[in-house]
């Protein structure tokens, strides 16, 4: 499943979970919250020439973890995995993994409900451009033709 489809599915699921913040409450939290940093905390890239074939496909998966480290600070860890393969993920020709740490700071105490929604709805919009650039850069360094991952659509 592509990340864009995952994003839509997660966004829809986030809007159906109970209990949740009202849109007005969410906007209130969002207005008082600032992005402090986005940093790359880990990465790996591997190319296995023996696994290249005529017809290849790529896939992107991701996962998110978070920790409210102080009442007004949250750190979200967003890991992406990009794979080029002919058939199974095990038989990949290219595998690129990177993890970003996103730190948010709020004027007031951060609600876990807010963080859960942010992680499902907004986080991708902030980390995806960094991931796209990282994949593009790594593929170029591997001597592979350019590949532009699509932008996310909400």
Provide an overview of this structure.
With 154 residues, the protein is α+β, with helices and mostly antiparallel strands. The protein has one domain: SecB-like (Bacterial Protein-export protein SecB, Roll). 34% of the residues lie in helices and 37% in strands. The protein has 4 helices and 4 strands; from the N terminus they run H-H-E-E-E-E-H-H. It has a 4-stranded antiparallel beta sheet with strand order 1-4-3-2. Strand 2 and strand 3 (73-85) form a beta hairpin. Helix 1 (3-16) packs antiparallel against helix 3.
User: In CATH, what is the class?
Assistant: Alpha Beta
The end-to-end distance, rounded to whole angstroms, is: 16 Å
CATH architectural group? Roll
Q: Into which percentage range does the β-strand content fall?
A: 35-45%
**What's the number of structural domains?**
1
Number of DSSP E strands: 4
Helix/strand-derived category reads: alpha+beta
Number of helices: 4
């Amino acid at each position: 499943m592509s990340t864009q489809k995952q994003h839509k599915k997660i966004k829809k699921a986030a809007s159906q979970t109970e209990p949740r913040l009202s849109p007005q409450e969410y906007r209130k939290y969002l207005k008082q919250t600032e992005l402090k940093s986005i940093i790359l905390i880990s990465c790996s890239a591997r190319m296995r020439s023996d696994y290249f074939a005529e017809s290849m496909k790529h896939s992107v998966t991701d996962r998110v973890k978070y920790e409210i480290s102080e009442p007004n600070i949250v750190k979200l860890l967003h890991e992406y995995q990009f794979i080029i393969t002919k058939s199974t993920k095990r038989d990949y020709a290219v595998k690129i993994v990177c993890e970003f740490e996103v730190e948010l700071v709020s004027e007031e105490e951060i609600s876990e409900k807010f963080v859960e929604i942010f992680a499902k709805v907004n986080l991708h919009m902030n980390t995806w451009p960094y991931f796209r650039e990282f994949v593009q850069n790594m593929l170029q360094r591997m001597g592979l033709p350019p590949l532009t991952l699509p932008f996310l659509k909400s």
